[in-house]
Design a protein that fits this description.
single chain, about 180 residues, mainly alpha, two-stranded antiparallel sheet, elongated, disordered C terminus
C-alpha cells in the first residue's frame, strides 16, 4: 500500500512538472508568434512608407504642423490610405487637429480591428486607441520633422520606427513631446 501511495506521489509530481513545462513552452511560443506579427506589421509600415514615397516623391512628414508650428496630424494618418484604411482617411478632418471634436469622435468609432492595426499583439493590456509604433524624429534620421524625408541608398541602416510598450502613444498623436534631447541633436 505504501509503495502504491509513493508511486502516485511520484506520478503526480512528474505530471506537475510536465504541466509547468508545457505552460511555459506555450507562453514562449505565443510570445514568439507575437514578435513575428509585430515584425510583420513593421514591415507593412515600411512598405507603406516606400509606396507613399513612390506616389508622392518623398516620405510623409513626421507630422503636419499648423501655422504656429504646433503638430496637428501624424504620419500615421497620412498613410491610412496606403494601408487600405481609406474609410478612415476619407472621414478624417484635416482642418482640425488630431484631437479635435470630429477626429476624436472618429477615433472613438473605430472597431477593434481599426484600433489594433497599429499595435503590437504583445501590447494586449494597452488601450486599443494607442499605438506601439513611433517614428524616430531628428536631424540625422529619415524623419527630420515637419518636412518630408526621403529613402535613398545613404539611408541604409537608419532606424525608421521603434516598437514596444515604452513607445505607447495615442495612435493619431502627431508627435510625442519629451524633455530629452532629440535623436541626432
Amino acid at each position: 500500500m505504501a509503495k502504491r501511495f509513493l508511486l502516485w506521489i511520484v506520478l503526480l509530481g512528474l505530471a506537475s512538472v510536465a504541466a509547468v513545462y508545457l505552460v511555459v513552452r506555450v507562453r514562449d511560443l505565443r510570445e514568439t508568434a507575437n514578435r513575428m506579427t509585430c515584425a510583420g506589421k513593421l514591415k507593412q509600415l515600411g512598405l507603406a512608407l516606400l509606396n507613399f514615397q513612390e506616389i508622392y516623391g518623398c516620405l510623409p512628414p513626421a507630422y503636419i504642423a499648423d501655422e504656429h508650428g504646433r503638430p496637428m496630424h501624424s504620419w500615421r494618418v497620412l498613410i491610412l490610405e496606403i494601408m487600405s484604411r481609406e474609410d478612415i482617411y476619407q472621414k478624417y478632418d484635416f482642418s482640425e487637429p488630431w484631437n479635435g471634436p470630429h477626429n476624436s469622435r472618429l477615433a472613438a468609432q473605430f472597431n477593434h480591428h481599426d484600433r489594433t492595426w497599429l499595435q503590437c499583439p504583445s501590447e494586449d493590456q494597452a488601450d486599443p486607441m494607442w499605438t506601439s509604433y513611433v517614428a524616430v524624429v531628428g536631424r540625422h534620421t529619415l524623419w527630420p520633422g515637419p518636412s518630408p524625408g526621403e529613402v535613398t541608398d545613404a539611408a541604409a541602416g537608419k532606424i525608421l520606427f521603434l516598437a514596444g510598450s515604452a513607445c505607447l502613444v495615442a495612435s493619431m498623436l502627431p508627435v510625442r513631446r519629451r524633455k530629452e534631447r532629440p535623436f541626432g541633436a
